[in-house]
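in:
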C-alpha cells in the first residue's frame, strides 16, 4: 500500500541520520545512562583530552592510534625497575595535570582507574564507529600483563569496610530525635535492611514507589537499578522495609510531613526541609555518622551494601534469598561483596571443631 506523499515533511534517506534524529539518538542514550555513569565518563574524557593536549601539544581527535594508548598505559601504570617502581609520565606534566584539576594527586593511577579510563576511550570509539585502538593486540596484551604485574606485587584494589549489624547499631546510636537524626536513622536502616541499596538508589527513592503494608511496615518498589536498567517487572523488585527499618521510616515520614516526591530530603537551618539528597550527600551521611560513632575502619555508602551481604552470610541466609534482596544476578559478584571476617563466621571454617 502506498501512503499519500506528505508535502510538509521531507522524505528521509534510509542510509543516513538527519540532524534531528542524531540528536534524538544521543538524548536517548544519555537518558538511559545513570547520572554517575555520565559523570564518570565526562571526567575520564576530560582527562584524556588534557593528557593528550599537554603530552602531544595538539587537540585530541578520534580515532587515536594504538601507540598513543600504549603511551597512556606506561605513563600511568607502575612497573618494576632497578630503581624501584617507576612510571613514564614526566613530573612536570604530572604536576600540571594536578594543578589544573584533572588529577587528584601526582603519581601513577590506581589500576582500577587506569582500566576505567581505557574502557571509556574504547566506548567513545565504538560510539563514533571508528577503529578502536583499545582492541589492538598490543594494547590488550600490555593491559593484561599490567594487571598480572600489579597482582604479583600484591597491589589489590582496596575495598571499604562492611557495615555489618554490630557496627551499624553503633552508628544508629548517634542518630538523635532531631529532624536530621530521624532522617539519618531512617535512611541508614532503609538502605541496609532493604537489601543494601546503592547510594544512587537511596537518593532516587520516591514516595510513589512506597506502599504501606501494615503498622510500621512498608514495601518499596525498586523499578530501576544498576542490575535492572530496563525496568523489567520482577517479584524481587518489591523490597520489604520491616522491623526497626519500617518503624524508623514511619517516624521520619510523620515528623517530616512528606507525602509525595523524594523520600529523603536535605534538612536546612531552622528545621526546614530542602530538596532531595544527592548520591554524594548519602555517602557523606554514612561517613559522618561512622566518624561520630567512632567505629574503626574506612566506610562509604557502599559499606551498607557489603555489610548486608556479609551479615546475611554470617547468619546463614541462603544465597538465593540474599540475591533476591540485593538484586544481584551473579553469584560470583555477591560472593565478592563478602568482606574480611564473613567467612570466619561460616560453618565451613570450623569443620575440624
Amino acid at each position: 500500500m502506498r501512503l499519500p506523499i506528505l508535502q510538509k515533511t521531507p522524505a528521509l534517506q534510509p542510509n543516513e541520520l538527519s540532524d534531528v534524529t542524531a540528536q534524538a539518538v544521543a538524548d536517548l542514550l544519555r537518558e538511559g545512562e545513570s547520572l554517575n555513569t555520565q559523570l564518570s565518563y565526562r571526567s575520564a574524557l576530560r582527562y584524556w583530552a588534557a593528557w593528550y593536549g599537554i603530552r602531544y601539544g595538539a587537540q585530541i581527535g578520534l580515532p587515536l592510534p594504538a601507540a598513543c594508548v600504549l603511551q597512556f598505559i606506561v605513563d600511568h601504570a607502575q612497573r618494576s625497575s632497578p630503581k624501584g617502581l617507576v612510571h613514564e609520565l614526566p613530573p612536570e606534566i604530572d604536576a600540571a595535570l594536578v594543578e589544573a584539576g584533572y588529577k587528584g594527586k601526582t603519581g601513577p593511577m590506581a589500576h582500577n582507574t587506569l582500566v576505567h579510563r581505557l574502557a571509556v576511550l574504547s566506548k567513545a570509539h565504538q560510539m563514533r564507529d571508528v577503529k578502536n585502538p583499545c582492541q589492538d593486540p598490543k594494547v590488550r596484551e600490555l593491559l593484561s600483563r599490567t594487571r598480572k604485574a600489579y597482582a604479583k606485587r600484591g597491589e589489590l584494589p582496596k575495598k571499604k569496610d562492611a557495615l555489618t549489624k554490630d557496627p551499624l547499631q553503633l552508628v544508629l546510636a548517634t542518630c538523635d530525635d532531631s529532624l536530621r537524626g530521624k532522617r539519618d536513622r531512617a535512611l541508614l536502616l532503609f538502605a541496609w535492611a532493604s537489601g543494601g541499596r546503592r547510594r544512587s538508589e537511596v537518593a532516587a527513592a520516591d514516595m510513589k514507589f512506597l506502599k504501606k503494608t501494615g503498622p510500621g511496615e512498608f514495601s518499596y518498589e525498586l523499578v530501576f537499578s544498576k542490575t535492572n536498567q530496563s525496568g523489567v517487572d520482577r517479584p524481587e523488585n518489591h523490597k520489604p522495609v520491616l522491623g526497626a527499618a519500617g518503624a524508623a521510616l514511619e517516624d521520619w515520614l510523620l515528623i517530616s510531613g512528606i507525602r509525595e516526591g523524594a523520600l529523603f530530603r536535605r534538612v536546612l537551618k531552622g528545621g526546614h526541609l530542602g530538596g532531595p539528597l544527592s548520591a554524594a550527600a548519602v555517602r557523606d551521611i554514612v561517613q559522618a555518622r561512622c566518624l561520630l560513632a567512632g567505629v574503626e575502619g574506612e566506610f562509604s555508602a557502599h559499606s551498607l551494601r557489603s555489610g548486608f551481604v556479609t551479615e546475611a552470610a554470617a547468619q546463614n541466609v541462603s544465597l538465593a534469598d540474599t540475591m533476591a534482596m540485593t538484586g544481584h544476578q551473579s553469584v560470583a559478584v555477591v560472593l565478592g561483596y563478602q568482606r574480611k571476617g564473613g567467612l570466619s563466621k561460616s560453618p565451613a571454617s570450623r569443620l575440624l571443631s
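note: The chain has 14 helices and seven strands.
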